[in-house]
């Protein structure tokens, strides 16, 4: 099971989360996401391969975004799977994970 893959171009990198982004993996994903946000100049997150996404997944995304903002960066969402889009829709959020 791949946790996160990374493709980079210079100072930018796109992290791809594969599989579940749920409470069952939150402790595993939390430090990886925060480390990436802290060390990559222009972080992006690809959630197109996420198979399940719950409240813990949303919390991970929001914590990573908050950390990026604290550091003067923007965490860009490059892709969202149907599971992620469904969760965003239920929460009244845009496809980019922003409040609608």
Main sheet: which strands, in order across? 1-2-3-4
Backbone CA Rg: 12 Å
User: What proportion strand?
Assistant: 25-35%
- Main sheet attributes: strand count, strand direction, barrel closure: 4 strands, mixed
Number of strands: 4
> How many helix segments?
3
Helical percent range? 25-40%
State the distance separating the first and last CA atoms.
33 Å
SSE layout and pairing:
Blueprint: E1 4-9, E2 12-21, H1 26-39, E3 42-53, H2 55-70, E4 76-80, H3 82-90
Parallel strand pairs: 2-3, 3-4
Antiparallel strand pairs: 1-2
Characterize the structure shown:
It comes from Massilia orientalis. This is Lipid asymmetry maintenance protein MlaB. The chain contains 3 helices and 4 strands. By secondary structure, the chain is α/β, with parallel strands linked by helices. The protein has a 4-stranded mixed β-sheet with strand order 1-2-3-4, covered by helices on one side.
